[in-house]
Amino acid sequence: MTTKRELRKKYKELRKALSPEAIETKSLEIANRLLQVAIWNHTYYHLFLPITEQNEVDTEFVLQILAGKDKETIISKSDFETGKMVHYLLTDSTKIQKNEYNIPEPVDGIEVPSSKIDVVFVPLLAFDTNGHRVGYGKGFYDRFLSECKKDVIKVGLSFFEAENAIADVFESDIALDYCITPDKIYRF
């Protein structure tokens, strides 16, 4: 079993090696696979905007799906003082600005409580066959997901396949319901 720290290092390296073309192709494959998952009968979808400098999954294609299906898209702003996220409805007039960590965030807008969100697309560096994920280690998503309703659907997006198991999973870690890769749909 591998630790979160080891996995962070490994997957940051693997992502760094991806070309812009590979990121675009794999991100499109992930979005196409998402269409096969039965999660589209809800209203409020929380989406992360990618940190391009970290070679994250480009969620532009998912954004297009949400717009095409006339769903409400919610994006967040992270507060590094409190470790919490504030969620805003994404509208045509939403102004997006990168924070000091290069995370694209809404400047302000219509706030949406966590309890309203039906589906959360979760960024991650790695995940295992039990649905546990490894993020950057700040705990933003575990805190956010713990504020959501019990039946919120958690969908990880990953360029890479699952690890067998993560050694140091905590009780406060919230597992995914699905993880979508370019080649596979994992259900947990």
From TrEMBL:
Cofactor: Mg(2+)
One Pfam family of this chain: 5-FTHF_cyc-lig
Catalytic function, reaction form: (6S)-5-formyl-5,6,7,8-tetrahydrofolate + ATP = (6R)-5,10-methenyltetrahydrofolate + ADP + phosphate
Domain of life, source organism: Bacteria
Record-listed substrate binding positions: 51, 56
GO biological process: folic acid-containing compound biosynthetic process; tetrahydrofolate interconversion
Keyword Transmembrane: no
Assigned EC number: 6.3.3.2
Record keywords: ATP-binding, Ligase, Magnesium, Metal-binding, Nucleotide-binding
UniProt: ATP binding residues: 4-8, 133-141
Alphabetical list of InterPro entries matching this protein: FTHF_cligase (IPR002698), FTHF_cligase-like_sf (IPR024185), NagB/RpiA_transferase-like (IPR037171)
Presence of the UniProt keyword rRNA processing in the record: no
GO MF terms, alphabetically ordered: 5-formyltetrahydrofolate cyclo-ligase activity; ATP binding; metal ion binding
NCBIfam families recorded: MTHFS_bact (TIGR02727)
Family, similarity comment: Belongs to the 5-formyltetrahydrofolate cyclo-ligase family.
Protein name: 5-formyltetrahydrofolate cyclo-ligase
